[in-house]
Amino acid sequence: MMTTATVRLTTAEAIVRYLAAQFIEIDGETRRLCGGGFGIFGHGNVTCLGPALYAHRDQLPLYRGQNEQSMGFAAAAYAKQWLRQRFMFCTASAGPGTANLLTAAALAHANRLPMLMLCGDTFQTRLPDPVLQQLEHFGNPTMGVNDAFKAVSRYWDRITHPAQVLQSLPAALATMLDPADCGSAFLGLPQDVQGWAYDYPAQFFAPKTHRIRRQTPDPAEIAEAAALLRAAKRPVIIAGGGVQYSRAVAELTEFAEAHGIPVVESIAGRANLLASHPLNIGPIGVTGSDSANLVAAEADVILAVGTRLQDFTTGSWSAFAADARLVAVNVARHDAAKHLALAVVGDAKLALGALTWALAGYSAPSLWRAKAQAARVDWDAKVAANVAAGNRPNSYAQAIGAVNALCSPRDRIVAAAGGLPAEVTANWRTLGIGTVDVEFGFSCMGYEIAGGWGARIAQMEREPDQDTIVFVGDGSYMLMNSDIYSSVLSQKKLIVLVLDNGGFAVINKLQNNSGGESFNNLLADCPTIPEVVTMDFAAHARAMGALAERVANPAELAEAFTRAKAADRTTVIVMPVDAHIGWTEGGHTWWEVGLPEVSDSPKIRAARAALDDARLQQRRGL
Predict the structure, then answer these.
(1) What is the tens place of the pLDDT at every residue in 222-237?
(2) Which CATH number characterizes residue 169's domain?
């Protein structure tokens, strides 16, 4: 009788050994699939998982985080930089350490980014219960804090026996590598089960090379989409983040050029085309451009490629004509079928290639293309005015312009929640393909610096001579800044631009524009703050080991940025910006937010009336 060779390992050792044996082929080169991990140890993961990670510290480097939430942000940014082809794990202890990862898991889930969480859990035997940090549910002893991750994970499991690793871990990896189902994967690891031993098949730990699946679109769907596009008089392409994840930028460019179709970009799809490309008509939507929104409003056929069509892209579904036809190319059926679209379910690279052939001989009318390009010229002039320094208060746009003029084409730009995503999306002129990370899927404050750190780790594996540049407001900085210290400790240099407007200025702007009075957003408008104390962000950054300076205006910022480029470690540059003046005007579609139906305020009543009128422009679909 044939026997299978086995190796006796603990659950924790088996997990780590398996991860270390997984590889992926990228552009003909084989790399380790898991780039390592971020970890903070506690009693729930240090005694069993800790020694296993120590034994594989050379294959799976473990970065010591300062906060579990920021570790998750860093892991998400790492995966985004690697176009979802590689991932990092995060490990946290049972209880609050793990709970801190919830927001990061939601960010990865919303953005369809792979991230593996290996988190401590209470004892499977329950003999020591209730244990430190355990949440007791009196009617359900199986429920704990880790169950909260079911809502924010694409794959969730609690390992209650060592043998379960044989099925669960490959399933988690398969989910993270699936283009349609990609997202965060969670494994709850009870403290006793982590140390339990099992005779695992030795073959389970043999090196394995993965390849990300490309789903071929149905020929009938391609034919139907091609017929609709061939009849179009005013077609437009919305290029989303999925174009980059599919590595389909060349196919997108070839398709647009072959058929003369204008291209607009979603927030996640920024940097699909260079700013100088003649068919790049600009960013679309609430944070978009006059040019892109003009062609979207007049288009008769819209080809949405690799976008989930969230409300900032669609203007809460007011950006398109009521009778415009929508064709959605997406590897995820859920996204392809939205809003009565003609769905083409499949890989963007393969679908665009098939559509190029199916549309042979077709070209969009030259007058339509010329109109779109003329609108882009007009928008470029507005951007030039937005970013120009002069005798006016400092603005986000001016800071963006100063950096844009001096950075390398391959430098990576990172921004997230607040006013900066809108300003970067509208005003940044793309110098290099795939170089812009504006996290607006979950619009998560605190992502900026942590995400910059994760992006920098990935960048140094691919383009070590380039810089990672972080734009962050003072509000997000105060929420999460400790990975400045992480970047210093790990020698992963960042350039961080802190733009200080005295609070949460963009939400104050929304508050005012919705008829509300300034309240509890800007520090100066908080009744519970008797006297505003100025935060010295530069001194704070220096205390974490970074170089730092405060500048007074965009000209000084440009000089400081040049010094930061030449520096050998993380540099923080702080510039004050006006909270009220200097926001980018124009370029914005309508965006639906909830407003009171009744109010004593005439301004709120007027805002509600405008909302009701705008709703009449919304497309009605599923």
Answers:
(1) 999 999 999 999 999 9
(2) 3.40.50.970
